[in-house]
Write a structure and sequence with these properties.
The complex is a heterodimer of chains A (477) and B (215). By secondary structure, chain A is α/β, with parallel strands linked by helices. Chain A is built from 17 helices and 19 strands. In chain A, the strands form five sheets. A five-stranded parallel beta sheet of chain A has the order 5-4-3-6-7. A five-stranded parallel beta sheet of chain A has the order 17-16-15-18-19. Chain A has a four-stranded parallel beta sheet with strand order 11-10-9-12. Chain B is 31% helix and 14% strand. By secondary structure, chain B is an alpha/beta fold. The chains are: A alpha/beta (477), B alpha/beta (215).
């Protein structure tokens, strides 16, 4: 018998029922809820007279919609100025209170972006199945979870049954061997992968990331990579468990202790693909080839190394691709043939479920320390991913470093990643953003997003345009 | 769930790959706590000249004249023809809600994003994958034939052209039955409650730390 992949193993160990029609019932260990994709699901439960199957698998927090301004946050939920936002956050609070779901409320320690707070609380743990009404749920795959985003109908289904009706995906192995050059970060790795396989390259697959680069990478870095699996079209992205994984979860709030911890660790240590496992597709990259990455267009696959040149549509032979380049350049207000480092930046956003963890904060702070942001930067926001990240960063004095440089230190939430709150771009503004999507209008109608790493975003803030962050790490302040 | 058996309707095409769910329904409309009323803001940025705001009646807004949904010949379209990777990005189910609320019952494309595809099936909206070649053929027909209609027969899994050509499409058995019969999926799963309970007993023995930690 041939070996199994990590995904195969997690699938098999959570399979409740394989139905004759090809669908399967998969047991869900953790279900994370937020204010945007849950109200209609709770409403559905009420209308059908149903209640959650069990409560101890659910965890909720508001993140998408809430203000990141400290005065507005301090004023509480009842003072949220936008009525529709206020109703949505209150609805989550009311639903969680009514049904008894554990919620970390807006200003409570523990609150944060769902994919930042889940792991840091030890609410999601290795080997679990994790779902959330958010496409970046693959983040939790970084520590050997089978984790993916679901729609609101499925949120209701999981609440009511603790199961998901689903079909097995195919397996893809993405190996990045060698080692990364100095100043090259996990964000650059995942953008390079998306650049290679394209935004639909992973459709229908569960991705497993392996190789020396991932062995060397921290758990937070692996979260950044798995987070953007969906930008390669894959719902699931995962990395096998190793000693770093186990170490990460020790003493987390909801993690087991004592004998149960020991038992859990011996279970987690088995969470790897077998050596003879067969993958349906394999992709290989060499870590040494990856440079800091920057997107120039309106799809995450429109990405180049920082020393690259924006493509000229006239050089593209495929008419559909040429059209896509023309459309992207027109939206972005850029010309083919321009150096990536000549892209001017108006706004800098450091945050989002991709890059708002403590290591991201430290990386950005190390660049801006002792420097001032360029006078042409209209606003540079640093938005920690959770209350705990915020507290840790403040304990380390990172908030002061950011503020001394002219950056704005904010309250935790999704913020300008999707601009559902007041943090948004004005039409035409170019943003150096550590988020995950550069779609048209994503960060505000007419806004122009350039995806990059926290250190690259910080460097762009100092320079006022895209620049290789290594320029600052390799020159004296 | 709304049933789907047969549908005949006018086809409109959006000839652009990677249409994401942010484009289908921009974020400002996600603040609604309802499932309905999203149709007027479907493709809001592509469809209107001004920036859309929640709670604003769209009847007085100025339409963009370069967007196919706004062409008079396509006003009653109920079948959307699209390109690769349709529905990529965010998992928001508001995207199929908006398409369905606008009046679409079928979307045809060479490929769809996974989460969007599943979300459509939960809402009586049928996503159909046809080859690039056939999709191109339909795009051409829609362009040259005013009032071009297609029929879709879910039971037989075929798209039927006005010239009676039939294009077969694939759909998994569960989703097909759910659409044909308008199944309550939660009710159906709850019929397997005994299996879920039995699984939980075993799971609790194997991985006790999963249970009871969050309270």
């Amino acid at each position: 018998m041939t070996g199994k992949t990590l995904y195969d193993k997690l699938w098999q160990s959570h399979l409740v029922s394989q139905r004759e029609d090809g669908s399967a019932l998969l047991y869900i260990d953790r279900h994370i809820l937020h204010e945007v994709t849950s109200p209609q699901a709770f409403e559905g439960l009420r209308l059908a007279g149903r209640k959650p199957w069990r409560l101890d698998m659910n965890l909720a927090t508001p993140d998408h919609n809430i203000s990141t301004d400290s005065d507005e946050r301090a004023a509480g939920v009842d003072a949220i100025p936008d009525e529709t936002s206020r109703i949505q956050v209150k609805t989550l609070d009311d639903n969680c209170d009514y049904f008894g779901v554990r919620e970390f409320k807006m200003n409570e320690m523990g609150q944060g972006i769902v994919h930042v707070m889940g792991p840091e609380l030890g609410a999601s743990l290795p080997g679990m199945t994790v779902v959330c009404g958010d496409s970046h749920t693959a983040t939790h795959g970084a520590f050997g979870c089978l984790a993916h985003g679901i729609g609101t109908s499925e949120v209701e289904h999981v609440l009511a049954t603790q199961c998901l009706v689903t079909k097995k995906m195919k397996n893809m192995l993405i190996t990045v061997d060698g080692s990364l050059g100095s100043g090259v970060t996990p964000k650059d790795v995942v953008l390079a992968i998306i650049g290679k396989i394209g935004t639909a390259g992973g459709t229908g697959y569960a991705l497993e990331f392996a190789g020396q680069v991932f062995s060397d990478m921290s758990i937070e870095g692996r979260m950044t990579v798995c987070n953007m699996a969906i930008e390669a079209g894959a719902r699931v992205g995962m990395v096998a468990v190793d000693s770093k994984t186990v170490e990460y979860f020790k003493d987390r709030q909801f993690a087991p202790t004592g004998d149960t911890w020991t038992k859990a660790v011996s279970h987690w240590n088995l969470l790897q693909s077998d050596k003879d496992a067969i993958f349906d597709a394999t992709v290989k990259l060499d870590g040494a080839d990856i440079a800091p990455q920057v997107t120039w267009g309106t799809s995450p696959e429109m990405v180049l190394p920082v020393d690259g040149v924006i493509p000229d549509p006239n050089d593209e032979k495929d008419p559909q691709k040429r059209q896509a380049i023309i459309q992207a350049l027109s939206y972005m207000g850029l010309k083919g043939g321009t150096l990536i480092t000549d892209i001017p930046i108006d706004i800098v956003f450091i945050g989002s479920c991709t890059n708002s963890r403590i290591e991201d904060m430290r990386a950005a702070a190390s660049i801006v320390k002792g420097r001032k942001i360029a006078s042409t930067i209209k606003h540079a926001l640093v938005v920690p991913g959770s209350q705990m990240v915020k507290a840790q960063a403040e304990a380390e004095g990172l908030d002061k470093i950011f503020m001394d440089s002219g950056m704005d230190w904010r309250e935790p939430g999704c913020s300008m990643c999707l601009a559902m709150n007041a943090d948004k771009l004005a039409p035409g503004e170019h943003c150096a953003s550590t988020s995950n999507r550069n779609f048209e209008g994503r960060q505000g109608s007419g806004g122009r997003t350039h995806l990059l790493s926290p250190s690259m975003a910080a460097a762009a803030a100092i320079a006022g345009h895209i620049i290789d962050a290594r320029f600052y790490t390799e020159t004296a302040q | 769930m709304k049933t789907f058996t047969l549908h005949k309707g006018l086809v409109v095409g959006i000839d652009r790959p990677n249409i994401d769910t942010d484009m289908i329904i921009p974020k400002q409309f996600l603040k609604s706590i309802k499932r309905s009323g999203f149709g007027q803001n479907l493709f809001d940025e592509l469809r209107y000249m001004d920036e859309g705001k929640p709670g604003v009646d769209c009847k007085s807004r100025i339409l963009r004249d370069d967007f196919p949904l706004n062409y008079p010949r396509y006003t009653s379209a109920s079948i959307l023809l699209a390109q690769e990777n349709f529905g990529c990005g965010s998992s928001r189910e508001h995207a199929p809600w908006a398409l369905e609320d606008y009046g679409f019952r079928v979307i045809i494309a060479p490929s769809f994003a996974d989460i969007f595809f599943t979300n459509c099936l939960k809402n009586g909206l049928l996503p159909i994958v046809l080859s690039k070649k056939i999709v191109k053929y339909i795009f051409d027909q829609v362009e040259i034939t005013e009032g071009y209609q297609l029929s879709v027969d879910l039971q037989k899994q075929v798209v039927i052209t006005p010239s009676s050509d039939e294009f077969f499409f694939d759909i998994d058995e569960f989703s097909k039955r759910a659409l044909l019969e308008g199944l309550d999926e939660i009710g159906l799963t709850l019929k397997e409650s005994d299996l879920i309970c039995a699984y939980e007993v075993e799971h609790m023995k194997n991985a006790p730390w999963i249970f009871g930690a969050i309270k």
